[in-house]
């Protein structure tokens, strides 16, 4: 039995610090923190020191005069060159201000409630907000992820993050959302090295873009018509950062998915408008199929080299002829170039189809439907390289409606009716990465998501609105040449003959024969063969 005398209480010896040492330690700790903060914020410290010096030397005028001067210079700068003012002055200042006042204050709560905080060794670990950069419309937050997180973790809660910071739209990028500038001139080499450092791959970071002011709310007026269209950059839409989104049309097919009345017409007409200069010069020919009886395109008839809107037979013929042009070019260009370059003699042929499902799914004549499907399949799989392109609009992107959806390399999603349709148009995972095309508000006609080359994250844009008057004006100023429809006359032109190939020496096969025996065999009764 254990008695009270058997128990022994062992207490560790307590080490009591003198009070002056505790106070000294705290003071030193705070002093170190202040010094560290000053080192990290040299601009703020410099300004504060300058303000104190000016105030002690000159009193209030010493503060007010520099402030007024700085404001005047800033206003002048903004008036002369607003872009550079935002880039070098207002953007960094506003970003810094919003970092401290908006994002840092809500950071811990937002990260925890959006499920991005982790626990390690019984301690909470949060993603780290490194920097905020603002421009007229966006805040770009550079965030260091917690070890073990990936950008996909942020992309899954994109909408939650937007609303956590009181915004409607956000986008998460795994790489810097801006592209490195093109440097020219004396300092180009040096600046190129700096850019390389700035834009180096940093897998520990993720970029959260929050839309502060929705630049896509106002209707976008039509863009200027380039005299010679640049097929690699046709200006069609406004981006969230107020930049212009341009379509790379060369060697690609474009699919536009959007519910009824979502603004597919504005995408197609913005494209036609950007090509108008080339239509008149003969650099590009538009072959248009409008199965809605011409409701969308009949107004622009003079712009089109070929137009079919009433008979499905005529639409099938048009597609067959496009295949014939493609075949002729393949024969002519094989072995010479890999990608066709449009010229006036050999123009780019763009087959524009409004409501493609009318040809592939809803057409009741089975034979005609099969014929159309065959031609479309050929054009989509082989036409891009030889400059016979398809641009098609569609309301319902399901596989049953459009079997060759995957043959369109470039896709645009306008407002859609179901969440699943977003991935059908833009590709798997696009909705998770922020393409909320099924949640378009009613005002967002012509607003859509596009996927840029080389980046998996979708971008939100608004296409320019081309009114009926603009279309009439376009048709009057940029009609297709009179002989535009006769491109098939070229088909008869002689194709390049097969290049002569020198015959290669045949390798010896079979058992090796002695030279003397081979000479006998190679001669016929003593005469060489
Ligand atoms: N970019 C735009 N900006 C502002 N309004 C637009 C834009 N595009 C279209 N709209 C408006 O939205 C409405 C529907 O446009 P549109 O007819 O182009 O849609 P749609 O998707 O082609 O429709 P449908 O499927 O019936 O052909 C029109 O009233 C038009 O004025």
UniProtKB/TrEMBL annotation:
Residues spanning the membrane: 15-32, 39-56, 62-79, 372-394
The organism's place on the tree of life at top rank: Bacteria
Keywords for this protein: ATP-binding, Cell cycle, Cell division, Membrane, Nucleotide-binding, Transmembrane, Transmembrane helix
Alphabetical list of SUPFAM superfamilies matching this protein: P-loop containing nucleoside triphosphate hydrolases (SSF52540)
KW Cell cycle (keyword) present: yes
PANTHER family in alphabetical order: DNA TRANSLOCASE FTSK (PTHR22683:SF41), SPORULATION PROTEIN RELATED (PTHR22683)
GO biological process, one term: cell division
Protein name, per record: Cell division protein FtsK
Pfam families: FtsK_SpoIIIE (PF01580)
Keyword Cytoplasm: no
Binding-site residues for ATP, renumbered to this chain: 258-265
Residue ranges, annotated region (Disordered): 489-529
PROSITE patterns: FTSK
Domain FtsK: 233-423
């Amino acid at each position: 039995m254990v008695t009270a005398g058997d128990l022994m209480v062992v207490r560790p010896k307590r080490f009591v610090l003198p009070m002056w040492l505790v106070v000294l330690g705290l003071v030193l700790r705070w002093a170190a923190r202040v010094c560290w903060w000053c080192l990290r914020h040299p601009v703020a410290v410099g300004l504060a020191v300058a303000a104190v010096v000016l105030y002690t030397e000159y009193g209030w005028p010493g503060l007010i005069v520099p402030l007024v001067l700085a404001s005047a210079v800033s206003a002048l700068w903004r008036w002369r060159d607003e872009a550079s003012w935002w880039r070098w002055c207002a953007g960094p200042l506003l970003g810094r201000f919003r970092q401290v006042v908006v994002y840092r204050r809500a950071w811990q709560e937002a990260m925890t409630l959006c499920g991005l905080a982790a626990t390690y060794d019984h301690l909470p670990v949060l993603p780290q907000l490194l920097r905020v950069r603002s421009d007229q419309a966006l805040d770009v937050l550079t965030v260091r992820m917690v070890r073990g997180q990936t950008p996909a973790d942020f992309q899954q809660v994109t909408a939650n993050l937007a609303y956590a910071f009181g915004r409607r739209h956000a986008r998460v990028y795994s790489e810097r959302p801006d592209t490195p500038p093109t440097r020219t001139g004396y300092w180009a080499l040096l600046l190129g090295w700096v850019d390389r450092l700035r834009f180096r791959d940093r897998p520990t970071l993720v970029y959260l873009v929050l839309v502060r002011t929705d630049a896509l709310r106002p209707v976008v007026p039509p863009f200027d018509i380039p005299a010679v269209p640049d097929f690699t950059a046709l200006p069609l839409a406004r981006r969230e950062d107020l930049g212009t989104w341009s379509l790379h049309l060369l060697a690609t097919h474009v699919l536009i998915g959007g519910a009824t009345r979502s603004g597919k017409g504005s995408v197609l007409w913005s494209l036609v408008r950007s090509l108008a200069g080339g239509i008149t010069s003969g650099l590009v020919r538009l072959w248009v199929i409008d199965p809605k009886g011409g409701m969308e395109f009949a107004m622009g008839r003079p712009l089109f080299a070929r137009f079919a809107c009433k008979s499905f037979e005529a639409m099938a013929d048009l597609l067959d002829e496009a295949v014939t042009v493609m075949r002729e070019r393949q024969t002519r260009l094989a072995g010479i170039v890999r990608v066709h370059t449009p010229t006036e003699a050999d123009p780019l042929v763009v087959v524009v189809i409004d409501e493609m499902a009318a040809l592939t799914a809803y057409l009741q004549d089975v034979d005609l439907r099969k014929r159309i499907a065959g031609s479309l399949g050929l054009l989509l799989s082989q036409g891009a390289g030889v400059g016979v392109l398809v641009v098609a609009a569609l309301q319902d992107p399901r596989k049953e409606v459009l079997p060759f959806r995957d043959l369109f390399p470039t896709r645009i999603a306008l407002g859609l009716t179901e969440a699943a349709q977003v991935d059908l148009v833009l590709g798997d995972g696009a909705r998770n990465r922020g393409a909320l095309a099924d949640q378009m508000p009613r005002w967002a006609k012509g607003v859509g998501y596009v996927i840029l080359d080389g980046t998996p994250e979708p971008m939100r844009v608004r296409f320019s609105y081309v009114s009926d008057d603009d279309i009439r004006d376009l048709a009057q100023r940029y009609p297709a040449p009179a002989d535009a429809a006769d491109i098939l006359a070229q088909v008869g032109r002689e194709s390049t003959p097969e290049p002569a190939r020198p015959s290669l020496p045949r390798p010896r096969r079979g058992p090796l024969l002695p030279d003397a025996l081979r000479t006998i065999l190679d001669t016929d009764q003593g005469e060489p063969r």
